[in-house]
Design brief:
Length: 147
């Protein structure tokens, strides 16, 4: 897996305390997903072809690694658009959230899509990837991080 420099030269960032929205409109802080489990946060959008191509790998990985928490964090689309995309592509994820203003991408200096962020059990960023993730590279990274 290829990493890119997020906040280069700084201490590894933690999952931020940024309020985001669930598909049902309920507000949630992203850092509520930190702790206990390794957490994978994928920044994506339905209009992004590389995002579309990598979605099945994330869905399969979520099923294969129940001890890892996957957060599919859509960037600035409506709940209706997201739900339609997931239904049309027969995709199911436990945690699909919306970053309506791009605050999370800004917090990590990520200015393209897709971006995948891997956090350890303490909520510290330990790996990141910009661009499409292949099933093989995702699996290899998850095996390394899996407790």
């Amino acid at each position: 897996m290829t990493s890119f420099a997020l906040n280069a030269g700084r201490e590894a960032p933690l999952i931020p305390d940024i309020t985001i929205e669930q598909l049902d409109g309920e507000q949630k802080s992203l850092n509520q997903f930190a702790g206990e489990n390794v957490t994978v946060v994928n920044l994506w959008a339905s209009w992004c072809p590389p995002c579309q191509r990598e979605m099945p790998a994330f869905e399969k990985s979520e099923q294969q690694y129940p001890e890892i928490r996957f957060v599919m964090l859509n960037q600035q689309e409506s709940a209706e658009t997201i739900e339609k995309f997931l239904a049309e592509n027969q995709l199911t994820f436990d945690h699909v959230l919306i970053d309506k203003t791009g605050k999370v991408a800004d917090a990590f200096g990520a200015y393209g899509l897709p971006v995948t962020l891997f956090f350890d059990q303490q909520g510290t960023l330990v790996e990141s990837h910009m661009g499409e993730v292949s099933a093989a590279s995702l699996s290899a990274t998850l095996k390394q991080l899996s407790p």
